[in-house]
Amino acid sequence: MATTISGNLRRPEPQALAGAIEALAARFGNRLITSQAVREQHAHTTTWLPTQPPDAVVMAQEPPISRTWCGFAPNTASP
Amino acid sequence: MIAFGTGTSLEGQVNAPAGGVCVDLHDMNKVLEVHADDLDCVIQPGVTRKALNEHLRDQGVFFPIDPGADASLGGMASTRASGTNAVRYGHHARQRAGAQSRACDGAIITTGTRAKKSSAGYDLTHLFVGAEGTLGIISELTIKLRGIPETIAAAACSFETVRRRLPGDNSRDSDRYSVARIELLNAEQVRACNPIRN
User: Fold this and answer.
1) How far apart are CA B126 and CA B46, in angstroms?
2) B152 — contact with chain A (CB < 8 Å)?
3) Which of B24, B28, B103 sits opposite A70 (nearest CB)?
4) Which of B18, B61, B92, B177 is the most exposed place for a label (fewest CB within 10 A)?
């Protein structure tokens, strides 16, 4: 595999993203957060780089609950 | 998926250039086991450096890596954090005995053991150290601890130029003086620090 990480980066289709968020929300309830403020907070560091927020934030808990979030990766377009 | 500990990194590790899901590990902050006699402990990734040392302080041991911020130990492992104590204690890769991680397909990968020595196979633990979440998200880690020194002394030394050789700036002198922590400030940095201190 000679591909680079940046070469794979592309935003998911809006429909796929909405579906993924919906599925995550059904699974995690209020531990899934999509508010702009929380998303920006989770992309804000002391770096000089501009803030690039995620689409959603999941507050991880003890396994085995936290194991579930890993299972979503192959079904979405995001890396 | 992007793992988030305390958000104190400097290199944009938590940025999501193509969106995605951020996994905040703040609530996974339990110290699971402490083996003070064996100089190691098992923790969840959201435990912060200061919280761990507070937890350990009555047992005569501490975790020596200090990157400055009160970072989460999972984040420190994932970014191979070092800091001023690295002079004596090395960086995070030297402090890890084993880990449990979640790969992107949900598989649980357990690497390493608490054994002090092992010559068996690939050293997968150190593959995860510094991988910045690209291989999986660390869900549990075993880290080495050190005994708290009986005496600690601090000193400030001034030099005419930065290039002038400092005591303790190589491993031979570090052994002789047992220097744990060095912070080198050039004239500009001293000028920047003084107004804050005063």
Assistant:
1) 19
2) no
3) B103
4) B177
Is 0.90 surpassed by the pTM of this model?
Answer: no
Q: Which domains does chain B have, with CATH numbers?
A: 2-147 (3.30.465.10)
Tokens of B120: 């068996």
Using an 8 Å CB-CB cutoff, list chain B residues near A56: 21-22
Q: How many CB atoms lie within 10 A of CB B98?
A: 20
Cα separation, B28 vs B197, whole angstroms: 36
Nearest residue in B to A21, CA atom: B21
B183's tokens? 């912070």
Give the whole-number percent of chain B exceeding pLDDT 70.
88
Q: pLDDT by residue (tens digit) across A18-68?
A: 999 999 999 999 999 999 999 999 997 777 888 899 999 999 987 644 444
**Amino acid found at B71:** A
Q: Of the candidates B31, B69, B4, B46, which has an alpha carbon nearest to the alpha carbon of residue B145?
A: B31
pLDDT at residue B109 above 60? yes
User: Which chain B residues contact residue A46 at CB under 8 A?
Assistant: 8-10
Look up tokens 């002391």; give the residue: A46
pLDDT of residue B187: 87
> Cβ(B71)–Cβ(B54) under 8 Å?
no
Nearest in space to A28 (alpha carbons), one of B46, B79, B24, B145 = B24
> Which residue in chain A has the smallest CA separation from B101?
A67
